[in-house]
């Protein structure tokens, strides 16, 4: 099996800890084959300090990962400075970016089945001249200018925020019919190709309380959202809405759709994290390769303590493997 590439993320955060824990739990949790793009000496020292028995094997290429046996395969990447837990250092930013770029190159070339990215600390990267809002936009550029959409996934829910990391006032101003249509098209294509759903069903949340009450509580549903729903339906996508967001996420409602389009970040993230706080996965749809990530940050406050929970990373690795298998079947069927 072609292995999954896992980037190191912020060296001062919990990324390497949860990578080591995912490796230790790979058998019991059904984690697919993966290798890490990281500094092997740092990993060895971290595992020793935390008392974890993890063997490492340096590899020169992903194709060598299968021969590593019980050892965690590491594609070496040297950090200029030894990281201090909880204290990001801009001097290591270039290595963090190089890990992402290397992973994207490998998955694009088919030498890795998918790319899983550990969380980054954006402020440290910005201080070193990184000009992207985050992973998603950087990967879109590496993919040749693809138009991505964020999908958050857990076992019981998939949500796609149409606007993402913007102040709420700016997000509402940026909400357009065209953006909703684009997110819906990307989501439907991803559900078919990467999740094996032959006829995806989308639900579209309203923006205002009670989905605007026919215009008495706001006209966004009438002027912006309903036309997008109609356009998606005309494109052959099974879609319903706009629906009141406060009735869209209870168990019976969730059985009626495969993913919900939400108008802003917290409308999507609150229900998902309420349902499965530890196990959520961030998926970037619309790229020519598969990318998942844990749905949490760098957790600088507990970095280096061994207290980090690898549940979300394990879920991200498992989902990446399942998506890769689904995409392969889709290519064969096509």
Describe this structure as you would to a colleague.
The protein has 334 residues and is an alpha/beta fold. It has two domains: 1-148 and 288-334, Isopropylmalate Dehydrogenase; 156-275, Isopropylmalate Dehydrogenase. The protein contains twelve helices and twelve strands. It has helices at 15-24, 26-29, 40-50, 93-108, 122-127, 135-142, 168-174, 177-194, 220-234, 251-254, 265-275, 311-333, and strands at 4-7, 34-38, 56-58, 72-76, 115-116, 149-154, 157-161, 201-205, 238-243, 259-262, 281-285, 291-294. It has a twelve-stranded mixed sheet, with helices on both faces. Helix 8 packs across helix 9 (220-234).
Compact summary:
By secondary structure, the chain is an alpha/beta fold. It is 40% helix and 16% strand. α8 crosses α9.
